[in-house]
Amino acid sequence: MNPQSKSRGNVLIGLGANRPGPWGTPRQTLHRALQELEQRGIMVTAASHLYETAALGAARQPSYLNQVALITTSLPAPALLRTLKQIEARAGRRGGSPWGPRTLDLDIVDYKGLVINWSRGRNVIAHERVRPLALPHPQIEHRPFVLKPLLDVAPYWRHPVLKLSACELLSRLPSRGQGSVLKMVS
User: Fold this and answer.
1) Domain 3-184: what homologous superfamily?
2) What is the phi/psi pair of residue 80, to 5°?
3) E-assigned strands of the chain?
4) What is the pTM of this model?
5) Domain map (residue ranges) of the chain
6) Residues recognised as catalytic
7) Mean pLDDT of the region 175-186
8) For 119-160, what is each residue's pLDDT tens digit?
């Protein structure tokens, strides 16, 4: 295991929601998710603005609210992922289709620069039913709904594999279409 993964350090997580749930509207749910992290001893160092973004996948679903948070934690990446999934479940997240509507989606975008199970933006073991944790998050370089808010909290961040900044990655993407940023809402 990478010694960096045991130290308390900076981690980027992506937050998204496009359906109301037990915690209220998507905006209220994202706010509550940040509080839930703090209650579990995960310090939220910074949180981006909220961005309304076009949904990925199914064409007929509401726009998302997306955000990126810079957090500090001593949890190893797998334990952090389990914690995020527990918070999603508390927020009413249930199984469903990939890229379908959801009350809350929490992802580890970058864990202290750690690179595991990552190969050209895809999970190394993509054929398995349950994919292993891949870091940095696969396909981030294609996701304006992550890159734009990431710039708010970590403007000097560089992709641990591609060695490009979020600004450089964002400039390569179309400004319209699935996953695009529609507007800043806060």
Assistant:
1) 7,8-Dihydro-6-hydroxymethylpterin-pyrophosphokinase HPPK (3.30.70.560)
2) -65, -45
3) 9-17, 43-47, 51-53, 64-73, 105-111, 118-119, 122-123, 181-184
4) 0.87
5) 3-184
6) 93, 102, 105, 107
7) 82
8) 754 544 444 445 678 999 988 999 999 999 999 999 999 999
